[in-house]
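Batch job 17 of 40 flagged for manual review because the log was empty.
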Amino acid sequence: MTVLYSRHPSPLGELLLVGERGAGGPTRLRGVYLPDDRHGRVVDPTWVEDREAFATIAGELSLYFRGARTTFDLPLDIRGTPFQRRVWAQLELIPFGTTVSYAEVARRIGKPGAARAVGAAVGRNPLSIVVPCHRVVGRDGALTGYAGGLDRKSWLLQHERGLVDRSAGAAPAAVSGEASASGATTTQASPTATPRDAGTPPAFLGNRCEP
């Protein structure tokens, strides 16, 4: 099957979209890569650029970045080890506007004490934004690691929390979370963090990635 790709502008820079499409079927999204992603893909010479094939995907991303969507409804073709897929599936369950720690994700998949392995799997997530790995933070709420860079992780968290606060009629909060009894944290924005293109609000989507 031919691998297709396209590029999509965003407030975080140009996104590389990668997927496959069967005969007459929708494009199944395999990767969303941010600029400078340390695990990002280089376009292979055998891939075919096809913007039309990603029209639905690009449309949902555009709505997300405008703050008009909070979930994705896209067919995924996510590939990884069984452990990675368990971790990525768990990321889909983190509620919009909250964060959890790597240790909490490890606990939720039945691997307490495997926070480092969870961190490695989170870092290899090929579907940035769609599978929200940006919602995983350090135990104390610190922003620790993001393949696309901590500035982009901060931007996404501030954006998401800002949408939640605006919908609730509250003043925007910050990005450094305080853990709840459930292990989730409320996202709080650092007073010194400056989101890129902060005047262009993005939104969140969420697809279920089954292990």
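Reviewer: the log was empty due to a logging misconfiguration, but the result itself is present. Residues 176-182, 185-211 have pLDDT under 50 and may be disordered. Unflagging and moving on to job 18.
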